Amino acid sequence: MGKKIVVALGGNAILTDDPSAKGQIEALRYTSKRLIELIKQGHQLIISHGNGPQVGNLALQQVAADSKENPALPLDTLVAMTQGSIGYWLQKALNEALAEAGINKHVASVVTQVVVDESDPAFANPTKPVGPFYSKEDANKLTAETGDIYVEDAGRGYRKVVPSPKPITIVEYPVIKKLIESDVITISAGGGGIPVKEAEHGYIGLEAVIDKDFASAKLAELVEADYLFILTGVDNVYVNYNKPDQEKLEEVTANQLKEWINQDQFAPGSMLPKVEAAISLVENRPESKVVITSLGNIEAIFGDGSVTVITAS
């Protein structure tokens, strides 16, 4: 019987060495052909994706063109714009792959708002760098003018940092559920979703970035998915990574992962948020499982190959 699967695409599924629209579309064509294999097996896909390089490039374009007549747009709007562009490219690529495979299914992208809490500790300690690099002098000047925080980034200059709060809920999840029930392949929660807070008559966008894997875990919880696939650059999660006693993880529980987190086994900004997102899903919805592997290894998930599978217990 087919499974309901949220597939969280990493940046390597969208952006290769060619950052042009043409290059990214080609990457998504390859990605779509890999995903079609799951659809052939009868599984229902709910796709999410990253947007870090794309929203970064768009922020650079906004700053370069900023003027009184054409002011730069805020970060929440840039997230919405990249959700739209990547969703458009991915829809086209999936439709092509479906047609080639002789599968009659519809694909729909949903511009997705994700609710966060302004009391989240992340707002008191912004850490996510966005936008261009500045000299220390220019960064200090911008801080005085705008109140934004700039920090040194890898010795290359100073960049603005914004909060990365945890998702509370997804505004459009009831719509996404209806699309799933109608057997529509959905693309949603792109780039972690547009960060918003609740207001009296709706929602207000925020200058923040939500981690894509945490948003995908929340999406999987809300749509009651059987699986969350977090696709990354390696086939498995490892402990003692790149050391002589490196160990490949295959079947693991949330509690085992917590022990390894306490041992600093997973790199912050790399594997750690993926592992933490996996834990959040299986603890909130124990019926779900999380698979962490690479796009190229996707056929191993329900085959004889090796992937990392995370369960509640």
Automatic annotation (TrEMBL):
Record flagged with keyword Kinase: yes
Gene3D superfamilies, alphabetized: Acetylglutamate kinase-like (3.40.1160.10)
Classification via InterPro entries: AceGlu_kinase-like_sf, Asp/Glu/Uridylate_kinase, Carb_kinase
Pathway(s) where this gene product acts: Metabolic intermediate metabolism; carbamoyl phosphate degradation; CO(2) and NH(3) from carbamoyl phosphate: step 1/1
Residues covered by the Aspartate/glutamate/uridylate kinase domain: 3-292
GO molecular function: carbamate kinase activity
Mitochondrion found in the keyword field: no
Reaction it catalyzes: hydrogencarbonate + NH4(+) + ATP = carbamoyl phosphate + ADP + H2O + H(+)
Swiss-Prot/TrEMBL keywords: Arginine metabolism, Kinase, Transferase
Recorded family membership: Belongs to the carbamate kinase family.
Name of this protein: Carbamate kinase
Species name: Ruoffia tabacinasalis
Lineage summary: Bacteria, Bacillati, Bacillota, Bacilli, Lactobacillales
Gene: arcC
